[in-house]
Amino acid sequence: MRFSVATIRKIQDVFISEMNKGIHQQPSSLQMENTYIPELLDGTEEGLYLALDLGGTNFRVLLLELAHGAPVRQEVKRYYISSELRVGSAIPLFDYLAECVSDFVISQGLQDVELPLGFTFSFPMVQHSLDVGILVTWTKTFNCSDAVNKDAVRLLREALDRRGDTKVKVVAVLNDTTGTLVQGSTLDPDTAIGLILGTGSNACYLERADRVEHWETERHGEREVIIDIEWGAFGDNGVLDFIKTDFDRENDANSLIVNSFTFEKYIAGKYLGEVVRVILARLTKEGLLFVGESTSESLLTPGSLTTDLVSHIEQDSVDGDDSNTKEILGKFGIIPDEDDIRIVQYVCEVASNRAALLVSICLATLLDRIDKERITIAVDGSLYKHHPRLEGWMKQYISLLAPGRKFKLIHAEDGSGKGAALVSAIAQRLKKRLQ
């Protein structure tokens, strides 16, 4: 799980190759999706903007007030989506979303005000323009099959029109990664990369518009555009198999969809704990760990060791302590000796460090590709936020892999909410300019 310099170079080369293929619409494991967002905030944005953030069992409606392109007030309300709506037909689901948007807008006394809305739709989609996003497949707990291959924006617009009780206009569709980049740009104008490192992982960046082949709308001399890499699937076509270990193969076999989200399975919160568990279970079976302890059945159960526990064990390594490690192993019915504790902490370190290095390899490659004097990377996600060592390792590795590049990592929270409202403000500004 430790990479040689030659392996690191090979990963970089493969990432560059897959990016270039994806952006030229050749077969690639990287989608390199055009978001049709050609610029960030310019400080002229004023007024009220809405966001609808749909990605899980709860969703949010958010109102953002902007003055001189900066948020000055925010109102938000959360709503729950029942399992019946999540797996039924598309129309009842989108009717419910429209009902909640309407409920929120009316509760704010804004039913007679024209409100642009940015729709964060955190599911795989193909974008044909800033306000057309075709659903490729549902993920997580959603499965309204009649919505697949349909435009999510149109479904929401039609549901809002059926109600007719507000003046909400859906002007943009995006995912949380794009929202994070845009949200980051309000904190630091040098932001050019958005990164999600949470349960899942993805990144997007500002690309030169002349490099982008997939552009279905009319061009208006755009210099840049945000490209959504969709890097969770990096390696789904086998190009990363040279770093795959037996532990990764077992982690993949235990996952919901085998041979998919290959890169995510190395780096994301949904899988990091399972990689550690697979290694610990193997060491236990081979008599190298917890010798004399009765093997805990729960440790041999896929999914039993979650990534938050890995973060707690890593905190012990930072603090030179054992208390978290002992407590966590105790929950598995294991009383560890000194060697066991060191081995468990080492395994957590190796798996976490590999994740940090893989993310850093790709980020360093993006810094070279964007080629600006200063670049800020806006990051959000639970793994990045709660793991005590990831950020430090990433800074260290990116500096080594992109020497001479000036970069900064900032935490940009709530790209899926605030970011979507900000994108709707950008969309309105672009629309006015072209009228």
From TrEMBL:
<dbReference type="InterPro" id="IPR019807">
    <property type="entry name" value="Hexokinase_BS"/>
</dbReference>
<dbReference type="GO" id="GO:0008865">
    <property type="term" value="F:fructokinase activity"/>
</dbReference>
<keyword id="KW-0808">Transferase</keyword>
<protein>
    <recommendedName>
        <fullName>Phosphotransferase</fullName>
        <ecNumber>2.7.1.-</ecNumber>
    </recommendedName>
</protein>
<dbReference type="Pfam" id="PF03727">
    <property type="entry name" value="Hexokinase_2"/>
</dbReference>
<dbReference type="GO" id="GO:0005829">
    <property type="term" value="C:cytosol"/>
</dbReference>
<dbReference type="Pfam" id="PF00349">
    <property type="entry name" value="Hexokinase_1"/>
</dbReference>
<dbReference type="InterPro" id="IPR022673">
    <property type="entry name" value="Hexokinase_C"/>
</dbReference>
<feature type="domain" description="Hexokinase N-terminal">
    <location>
        <begin position="2"/>
        <end position="184"/>
    </location>
</feature>
<dbReference type="GO" id="GO:0001678">
    <property type="term" value="P:intracellular glucose homeostasis"/>
</dbReference>
<dbReference type="InterPro" id="IPR022672">
    <property type="entry name" value="Hexokinase_N"/>
</dbReference>
<feature type="domain" description="Hexokinase C-terminal">
    <location>
        <begin position="193"/>
        <end position="425"/>
    </location>
</feature>
<comment type="pathway">
    <text>Carbohydrate metabolism; hexose metabolism.</text>
</comment>
<dbReference type="InterPro" id="IPR001312">
    <property type="entry name" value="Hexokinase"/>
</dbReference>
<comment type="pathway">
    <text>Carbohydrate degradation; glycolysis; D-glyceraldehyde 3-phosphate and glycerone phosphate from D-glucose: step 1/4.</text>
</comment>
<dbReference type="GO" id="GO:0006096">
    <property type="term" value="P:glycolytic process"/>
</dbReference>
<dbReference type="GO" id="GO:0005536">
    <property type="term" value="F:D-glucose binding"/>
</dbReference>
<comment type="similarity">
    <text>Belongs to the hexokinase family.</text>
</comment>
<dbReference type="GO" id="GO:0005739">
    <property type="term" value="C:mitochondrion"/>
</dbReference>
<keyword id="KW-0547">Nucleotide-binding</keyword>
<dbReference type="GO" id="GO:0004340">
    <property type="term" value="F:glucokinase activity"/>
</dbReference>
<dbReference type="GO" id="GO:0006006">
    <property type="term" value="P:glucose metabolic process"/>
</dbReference>
<keyword id="KW-0418">Kinase</keyword>
<keyword id="KW-0067">ATP-binding</keyword>
<dbReference type="GO" id="GO:0005524">
    <property type="term" value="F:ATP binding"/>
</dbReference>
<keyword id="KW-0324">Glycolysis</keyword>
<dbReference type="InterPro" id="IPR043129">
    <property type="entry name" value="ATPase_NBD"/>
</dbReference>
